Amino acid sequence: MTKLGRLYSMFDSVRLPDDLPYTQVSSWELRFLYLVGRHTLSGEGRVVELGSGGGGSTYALALGLKESPVFDERTGRLHAYDFFRVGKGTFATEKFFTSGHRPAHDNSFLDDFRGRLEPFLPFLEIHAGDLWQTSDPDDTTPVEFLHVDIAKTARVFRCVCERFLTRLGPGSVVLHQDFAGPRLPWLHWSTGALLPYIEIAGPPIRSTLAFEVTRPIPEDVLKSVSEDVYTLDEKLALISAVQDRVDRDHTGGIPFKSVLELSKAYVAHYAGEHRRAWSLAKPLTSDEYLARTRADHFEQLRKAYEAQPGTASRLKRLVRGR
Ligand SMILES: C[S@@+](CC[C@H](N)C(=O)[O-])C[C@H]1O[C@@H](n2cnc3c(N)ncnc32)[C@H](O)[C@@H]1O
Predict the structure, then answer these.
(1) What is residue 247's DSSP assignment?
(2) Which of 182, 212, 229 is the last residue of a domain?
(3) Where do runs of H (alpha helix) occur along 174-321?
(4) Which of 24, 83, 135 to probe ligand 1 with, by most ligand atoms within 8 A of CB?
(5) Fewer CB atoms inside 10 Å of the end CB: C or N, the chain?
């Protein structure tokens, strides 16, 4: 069992304050972040959170570090990266403002974040702005912990790969938030590529997959992941390899094999292979969980397929003059 595996039996022992900052992650994930900070991190390598938002996840992690017997607040640092502002393309919500909405003439929630994270400011290092600008391409300091809640586009994922995954080594811990998001297939195929060098901690915790690096990750593997060199079929095979390792999440609510199957459809969709995407997605429309939670995904994939030249529904629309 990895050092993360034993945390699964400790969820019930965690009591987080009721007045945590607004967060988009579940209480299960918050408690896991706390446990990782409290029991597994030393602070000797970089402790990094990518995508702090309004600070809910940051708070849970920072509280764990503060209560850790080994993390030294005088020398250890928690690095928090985010735009810390709302606006087009940021993926940040107005709920990250303490008031719950954006004040007039100000789109930054950085002061709100600072205010709510006040007890931890002595060891919190804030990097505000676009990750491509705020992260240092020349920084090779080892990363002990990486919470990835930022890779909502392939462009940002590339930055995560180039500047952070390259700094992982044996013992490093990674938490991928939104692993239950079929529209983020790069999280899934990249994990497939890393499987020989990592150990998955256990069932995902709601939408979070946790793993520990167990062997040095070869440079060429990281380069292939960063540069997205895999073919469509290779990516599907990499996702299948992850499907062999994960099933239902720890709470029993999320069937990851189905989620990952829908992620394969998105690999095809992003490659412009809409027929293939729909042929992968269509059989999943009868999956109870996906039908209930991902109707919009099916709609998107079906529409893209139907817009293809030569599909029956496109011909029908053309005949009807629409
Ligand atoms: C899902 S939210 C994070 C939620 C947060 N962890 C919580 O506990 O609620 C994703 C965050 O990623 C940030 N983000 C997305 N792309 C970014 C980029 N290129 N640079 C910096 N931040 C980015 C957004 O500002 C947003 O706050």
Answers:
(1) -
(2) 229
(3) 185-194, 219-226, 232-243, 256-270, 274-281, 288-293, 295-306, 312-319
(4) 83
(5) C
Ligand 1 centroid, distance to 317 Cα (angstroms): 40
Residues 213 and 251 in one domain: no
Q: Are 16 and 31 in contact (CB under 8 A)?
A: yes
* Whether 217 and 247 share a structural domain: no
Ligand 1 contact, 24 CB (< 6 A): yes
211 with 311, same domain: the answer is no
Among candidate residues 180, 207, 229, the one where a domain is terminated = 229
Residue 201's SS3 state is coil
pTM summary value: 0.96
pLDDT digits (tens, 9 = 90+) for 194-247: 999 999 999 999 999 999 999 999 999 999 999 999 999 999 999 999 999 999
Ligand 1 touching residue 29 (CB < 6 A): no
Same domain, 224 and 238: no
Q: Is the CB of 130 under 6 A from ligand 1?
A: yes
* Domain hosting residue 59, numbered range: 5-229
pLDDT classification of 61: cutoffs 50, 70, 90: very high
Same domain, 48 and 185: yes
Band (pLDDT 50/70/90 cuts) for residue 160 is: very high
| Residues 113 and 55 sit within 8 Å (Cβ to Cβ) | yes
Q: Which atom of ligand 1 is nearest to the CA of 53?
A: 27
How far is 65 from 278, CA to CA, in rounded Å? 45
**In a 3-state reduction of DSSP, which class is residue 92?**
coil
Residues 224 and 239 in one domain: no
Whether residue 316 is predicted with pLDDT greater than 90 in this model: the reply is no
Q: Is residue 321 part of a domain?
A: no
Q: What is the pLDDT of residues 259-297, one digit of tens each?
A: 999 999 999 999 999 999 999 999 999 999 999 999 999
**Domains in the chain: how many in total?**
2
What does each C-alpha distance from 136 to 94, 130, 131, 176 come to in angstroms?
28, 12, 9, 21
Residue of 29, 82, 94, 133 best suited for mutating to test ligand 1, as the one with most atoms within 8 Å of CB: 82
Q: Is 158 in the pocket of ligand 1 (CB under 6 A)?
A: no
74 & 219 share domain: yes
